Each structure stands twice: as structure tokens, then as C-alpha cells.
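Example 3.2
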Amino acid sequence: MSGFHPAASARRFVSVASWLRFLPFVFLLAGTACHRKPARPSAHQITQEMVANVEKTGGRGIQVNIGSEPVPTVPEEHAPNSIDVITIRLSDIRSRRAVEQALDDVARKYGMVRTPEVMASGMVRWKYERDGIVTQVIRIVPPSASAPPRAAASSPPTGNMPRMAIIIDDLGYDRSADDAVLSLPHPLTVSVIPHLPLSREIAEEAHQRGYQVLLHMPMQPDSTTVQQEAIELRPGMSGSEVQQTLTGMLDTVPFAAGVNNHEGSRATSDPQLMGELMPMLRTRKLFFIDSRTSAQTVAYETAEHDGVRATFRKVFLDDVPTHEAVLAQLSQAEKDAHRDGWAIAIGHPHPETVAALRQALLRMHDEGVTLVFASDLAH
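Structure, written as C-alpha cells:
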């Protein structure tokens, strides 16, 4: 028979009272869960939001491209392995303020800090940082910088005037070094390494600005101490492997008008490998510049034999990368041009090389040497 038990009732009362003591904490935890902040967006997600905001508010005629730069140092834990590069080309300079506001609005939303602007190649460039880590690089290209520089168009030969082509190799590694090259108002030929984060962006920009673009094709060197590219042309490759390698490289270097070898002292000395490559260049109507990294090279002779327009390098400008040494090599190239009617000089995007070119090229023109693209000297 059931009935009222004072002891049991007392125990139930104590139990309920104990539970009620924790009730405020239960509501506090529930409230915290309900008001939990959304997951923090990644840098790449913020980039996409920035681009969408620019395209919405920037007006017509704006072109926006997203690229990337490698992180210059070993990234910290949870830091991105690359930095997004947003390139915005303006059709009307009056839209710049709206574009900057659209970018800053998104950056402010996520507590990001903007670094001071710098000028490079006629473009405005700045960065956004979050927690002290660079997450985006912004490049604003005004209408005047989108068009080819006035002097960066290959000049037709004048009478028997000697001609010189200057090729700047190894573009695609370093954005600031490449910007310095692309600020030179002369008809230079730039050779871009394939399969790098900046390869496509640099090739497209160089073409838009009026420079001639080459594929700087990695080829196997003799030396084991030379740093090799992950993808390169090597002796022993089959025709299909050469074809696949060339196609993949050209896909990352748009607007390439020709090819020159990057390293390749072993590869260019191999008749079978060069015999596989040259007909493929002829089919694509690409010319070949033999960088002559080996005295045993057969690349130029094979190109001639297989009906590929070709020529070869006479002078390296910056084996000794000092201002004075580069000027001396430019003088040597000028002498070669006067003696033979033409010369090809190859340099690299070193600050000393760019400074020497800036100083010497106008003087060289005044002294009777016409600067042309590499294609003008290929035959």
C-alpha cells in the first residue's frame, strides 16, 4: 500500500534543489552556444568576397584577376602557403576610388590592416595583413599602364643600322624583380619560367604591355650542383614525353612567341632530344633561341636543319652581377652588333642589370644600334 513517506519526499526535494542551483549555468551555456561567432573565413574566402565587391561597385570595364605569390619565408603554423594577388585593371581612372573603397570595406569587416601604397611599373600596389600575416596583395593597373609603353614596340630596321635584341631570362620567380623589368620603356624580350605561381600572370602582363614573351624552357644541365626545375626536358625522353612536357609548359606561359633554353647544357648537346623538340616548335610556329649554355650545343644547328626559325646568344650580361660589369657586357654586345650587324644579349632581373639597361639603352640608340625583339633576328 502506497502512502506519504516524509524521508523520500525530503530526498526528492534536496535533489530538485541541487539541480536548480545549476540551472543558471545551463542557460548560460545554451546562450553562449546560440551566440557563438561563425567560423573565421580563410584568406582565400576573403579574396573572393573582395573580388565580388569590386565587380559589384567598380563600374564597367574593370578586369579582375586572381593570382598568387609564394610566401617569402617559411610559413608559421596555420599561415597560408601562398599569398593571393588581386590584379585590377581600370578602364577609367575615375573608378579607382570606388575600387579601393570596395576592397577596404571588406578588409575592415575582418579587422585587416592595409600597408602603405607603393608604385611599380606604373601600377599602385599595397597589401592587406591579418594578425601580422600578409594575406592579399592588391595591384591597381591604371589605363595608362594597361597599354604597351610607347617605346616598347619593335622598331623596323633603318638601312644597314646594326640591331640588338636583349632577352631577360628567369621571369616568374619574384614579383618585385619582374615589375622592375616591366618598367623599362624599351622593346625587350622577356623569357618566363613555366609552372611557377607567377608564370601566367607575368606572361599576360608582359604581352599586354608590349614586350615579346618567350617560354624559358627548363632543360637538364650537365652539372649536378645546379638547381633543377621539377619539370624539364631530359635526354632519353620519348617523343610523346617531349610533346607532353612542351604542351604543359606553354599552357602556363601564354603568348609565348618562341622558346629559349633554361640551363640545358646536357639537353641541348643531345642530338636525339633536340631532333624530337624542333619539329614540335615548327608545327607551333615558334622560333628558338639557343642560349648556348654549352660549347657542345647542337640546338641551333638542329633547329636550322628542321626548318625552325632560330638564332643564338652572343653575350651574357650579368655572369658578374655588378653595375659596372653589366655596362661592360652591354658595350661588348654593341661592338658585336656593329661588327656583325646583329647581336643577342641575355640578362636576368637583377637590380644591377635593370639599372645598367636603364642607363645604357638610350645612349646605345643614339650611337646607332636599333633595339629589336628576338624574333626579328631569328631566321
